[in-house]
Amino acid sequence: DAGVTQSPTHLIKTRGQHVTLRCSPISGHKSVSWYQQVLGQGPQFIFQYYEKEERGRGNFPDRFSARQFPNYSSELNVNALLLGDSALYLCASSLPTGGLWNEQFFGPGTRLTVL
Amino acid sequence: GQQLNQSPQSMFIQEGEDVSMNCTSSSIFNTWLWYKQDPGEGPVLLIALYKAGELTSNGRLTAQFGITRKDSFLNISASIPSDVGIYFCAGQEYNNDMRFGAGTRLTVKP
């Protein structure tokens, strides 16, 4: 079975531009979460979506938005890019188990560089 | 938000040695998790802990959920070269937000 897939793998943008990152969850998984991982740090939670609805949001500005599609894939959008947005963006999918979405399976990430 | 303090930041050990790393939080979590991340890949779940005091093993890995629910440790016994990587602790709250520590970078010398 295919794991979580993300595209593109690498991306270079300039300040002020907009970017869209894509994620396909493991087949059967209905929840998708997005994380930002700056070099040398642990992942930071951005969003969680379940059944196409936002279920959680981390401490990120409104320039960050996301959505989930009927096939449970997801997009993360970042507007007005800043240099500090350069990071590895990770997508994770999970099945809800007893109300706790602990078993999150991560994709390989999209490396975004903002120049 | 809650801060997770993970230590040590890095470890250089000889193959065969045991390893211990830990994580502390300023507040309570209802779940503690340990992940490993290899270069160019996303984190992979190693162990999940759901109850205060719980001690769980996965092969050579053992982790414990602290009684106070504010800390957790991970032990690796008899390290091997493929244990090299970055280990992250993560705490999860009831609202499902997951917070990660800054990671422990493990180097194993053959």
Quick recap:
The complex is a heterodimer of chains A (115) and B (110). With 115 residues, chain A is an all-beta fold.
Plain-language structure description:
Chain A is mostly beta strands. In chain A, 0% of the residues lie in helices and 50% in strands. Chain A has strands spanning 5-7, 10-13, 19-24, 31-37, 44-50, 53-57, 64-68, 74-78, 87-94, 105-106, 110-114. In chain A, the strands form 2 sheets. In chain A, strands 2, 4, 5, 6, 9, 10 and 11 form a 7-stranded mixed sheet that branches. In chain A, strands 1-3-8-7 form a 4-stranded antiparallel sheet, with no helix packed on it. In chain A, β7 and β8 form a beta hairpin. Chain A starts with a strand and ends with a strand. Chain B has 110 residues and is mostly beta strands. Chain B is built from no helices and 11 strands. In chain B, strands 2, 4, 5, 9, 10 and 11 form a 6-stranded mixed sheet that branches. A 5-stranded antiparallel sheet of chain B has the order 1-3-8-7-6, with no helix packed on it. In chain B, β7 (61-65) and β8 form a beta hairpin. Chain B starts with a strand and ends with a strand. The A-B interface holds A 4, 33, 35, 40-45, 48, 55-56, 58-59, 90, 92, 100-109 and B 1, 4, 6, 30-31, 33, 35, 40-45, 48, 50, 88, 90, 92, 95-103.
